[in-house]
HMG domain-containing protein (Candolleomyces eurysporus), 754 residues
Amino acid sequence: MSRKRSSKVLDLDDPVEAQSFDYPDSLVSSAKGNFDSSPTKATKRYVRPLKRRPRAIPMERETETETGGEEDWGHPTTPAPVVGPWEAFDDFGLASSSGTDLADDAAAVILGANSAVGFSDNDVASYLDAVESFAAGFYQVGESIFAVEGWDTQRCQATAGWYHLQHLIINSELHVACTCPQAVRNFCIHQTFFKEYDVERLLQGRTLRVDSTDAVLYFRQQVPNVNEFVTMFSVRSFSSSQLKGRAIVTHTGRAYSAGLWRCSKDPNSKTICVHVQACFKILEELTTTPEGDLDEVLEGAETAQALASITRKEAVSHLPVLPPASISLKSDPQLYPRPPPFRSPPSVTIALDPQASCPCPSGRTFHNPSDPTVVRQCRIFALHTVFHAQIELQRCPTCPRNRRRYIGPDLRTQGLFNYNNSILVSHELLDEYTISFVTSETPFTAFVAVVAHRYSVSGAVFMGEDLFRSVWFSYAGQMALEDDMTCVRCGLSPETVIWDGITLAFGRKHVSSTLTPPTEHSPQSIIRSNVKRLPKQQLIPDTRLRTKLRQVLKGPKLDESLSDEGSDTEPPNSDQDKEHRHRQSQHMLEHLNRVDDVYEKLNIECSALATLFRETFGAVAILNKKAVPAPYRNLFRQIAAEESVLQMINGSSLEDLGLFLSNPCRAQVTKLVTIPALYQVLQSDSDIEPLIPVARWLHEKASRTLKGLSVETLRLDDPKSKLSSEDPASDWKLVNWMLLQLTPNTAPTTVSTS
């Protein structure tokens, strides 16, 4: 700077010069404001440091152009600061590989971040009911990470935002960090609930193998009245391992390649960010995998789990209830007088009854008349509206106090179903859905929409779809249907039980965090350590050979392929006819080549089977216009099936096949009536000698597969293997209802036994 120019610079430290100098008004007003704008980074805004609060973190809050926090689909939320109490976790080693020493002052900072105050017991209890009723999302997406839905404590309802929560044990003390805006103000219901409810102890012993994956699917539900789904993912940060870097990705649509993608970290971006790209493969497999593909479902089993599916397994009401009057049988026992419909609010407090209980995990705890009671608010959902009432409860002495469990009345004699002491539903309303499903297979979505419209007439609001589904399954599991399932021919213990519906696995598109498979373990489960999945249980282990064999079965019909051969009609005149005949010739040539290929490979498996195949499908049969008999086509269809050979030949049928092979003659053919495919072929052919080697091959294959699966000698009738009668898993009805519990937009699937 030149001397001449420097002489004009004011010395503001000089009182005289400072008094004669005035700053521009705009600069003065800007200095008095709380926010500054960076002159070089227009997308950044900075807030001045706030004054230190008691037990709060001194912070500098930074908000990027991402004006919404982790927001739900289409609904902006309150701007979520990027830096908050979770910053302490990242700086001191929770999610970052750097920084392994935890200084005392660092621990003090983290402790201050986890001292949320200001919530009453009713606030936490209301949020607990919402979480256990699926009304407020709380999903475990990692070993210590959760995706949580925003919660309005004033209105007691979920907000549109989704956030992340993480917990850590430091010096034997639990610390919780959350990315919701309330956590910055030290007023987070998620942190308070996690610590007071002791969620960390509840999750001990449960493993969730999703920490190594880039994206975790935790929520999927159909959009009402639209053939589209909302799917949500929790995606890790690709630039750091910090909690604040995780993103909530939402997709609305039918397929991964269509619909609307939104990312909480890049809400205004017009390009596909890395978080969305990480979700492509998961959603593609989810929407394209065929139903019932067991291997695919098992590979994709690393999904999130709802906290509600862990905390609450049973309702407060526990006594058997009568089926709907219109479908009751004369033989049904009258457990209690059927109450009239509940259609008016109670005039007095709903009192405890002798059967009042708490569904403790270790077994129900019943009402003790000598212990004190409390009165709480509850809602009664009737057929046309909701009533607000008071209910008498008693604190459960068995459950830990931080669980906030209460003993409540059963209320079946009043026509009410007590779900969780705060949600009561009339039998009339629940029976209406039962009848709707029985008569027209009404989905939950449609029924809830109809009842919500009915409620709106009186200005009331009906419960959400997730909550109603959970209530109905709990209620349906208590219907007195025990005596209806006994087969009049087989008795109580039939040799074969057929489940009409889902057996071993769910279609991948039905998999959700609230769906519990029938293979879930319990402490009383029989341990069969030697049981392993046996691969290649099909009759033909070669996948390509099975595919080609099925293609041969679908080959051109003989009458159509040879209809023009040797005819006296005039040769085709048009190019179109020539092209048509050329295509027919090409198809027939490909078919014959495929037949030869299948014959050569079948000859390796069983020469008699290969000979039978060539005689039935070979070129000689085609030239002689010999149509394939239906029994032979069905036999080869069974041989090429993509299923275990034991589906064709079970244990008892295998014994019958062995008896036939001990004396293979025409008189013994009826012993194979339990193997229809083989029996019909033997019945239709006068000469059974060429088929006996095929029968021996089938017997060998089935015996080998059954032996490979029979690796345990412990039987269910062994006294050591008896399930405890107190074990919920020993109740066949629980397996029944678990099989029914499909996706939110799907009606239950009928399950029957025979």
